[in-house]
Prior knowledge:
Elements: E1 6-7, H1 11-32, H2 38-65, E2 75-76, H3 88-97, H4 105-138, H5 146-167, H6 172-200, E3 206-208, H7 210-235, H8 258-261, H9 279-307, H10 314-336, H11 341-363, E4 365-367
Parallel strand pairs: 1-2, 3-4
Amino acid sequence: MTDSLYNLTPLLHLLTMGALVAMVPLCWVWLRNPKASTSRRVQALTWLTLFITFDLVLFGAFTRLTDSGLGCPDWPGCYGHASPVGAQSAIAIAQNQMPTGPVTHTKAWIEMIHRYMAMTAGGLILTLAAFAWVRRWRTEANNPVLWPTVTLLWVCVQGAFGALTVTMKLFPLIVTLHLMGGLVLLALLTLQVQRHRLTHDRHPSISLAPMLYAATWLGMLLLTLQILLGGWVSTNYAVLACNTFPLCQKSWWPLMNFEQGFTLWRHLGVDANGQSLMFESLTAIHYVHRLMAYGVLAYLASLGFLLRRVQALQTTAHVLLGCLLLQLLTGLSNVVFDWPLVAAVLHTGGAAALVIALLWMLTGARPSRSTVLNGL
């Protein structure tokens, strides 16, 4: 065992494990489509990578919500080992010292499974980038390599944030950026899936009125801001600062400390001076997210009803509206039912699904020259 936070000894073992696990979906795609072209196989692999990355985002939320983020307090291994099996004695000592603390056998496994999943997703993204470059060099001079390469670079950045999440002891800003990094990764993979669909399946781009197209982009920006606020609530454990709805602490405007609550560069549970965070700060974090949710929900719901009148976007618009309903129900459940784990994980999943749905529309559509709404 080593006292260093950055013990790279088990890194090779983890990379090997990630490569072996990534081979399973890779082989499945290739064997399931024995007569398909390489383009079709890459398209199927991109879909599968998007699905696995979505699961990774959900499991990341599960890791955070079960307080397992420091289940292995070093990186990339667990007490200098590639799995909790080799670290049993160290974990047992930590658990005996603090039975309900951040290090237990269960939490260590949750944390390491999250890392294994991240390695698997990274291996698949590396494979997609490698295929893009090999095809570019050997056969297809015009084969696009930009987005697979950007995605590969981004997953490396995301891995760095994952390491900082552990080594900086759940620093709220780092954890929030790590969550957003996962959603950016989903967006990049969605863009590639849509590109394959438009290119190889020859689906025409949907023509939208410029105002509707711009409104959809505005919806994406509002959703991004709301997810950032939600991440800030979660990483500061401020969900239960208001445990009633629609009032908060029996008031429409409870006592709040915005300056302290939204000081970004500080450690978990303390202010910039190292003093314990006031409860009014947690209230401010929670209530700003709640107030913003009212406006974003109303805007995206209105946008969804407009988009469903465009025939080619009806299915995606219904997905958007369904995800909004899920967000409303799970958000209320988190407050009223004392932050149940299933609802909290689904709340993160709903946010991720909203990002995919909106980006699917934006990448599959283009603003028309006409000023008349299509289908209206």
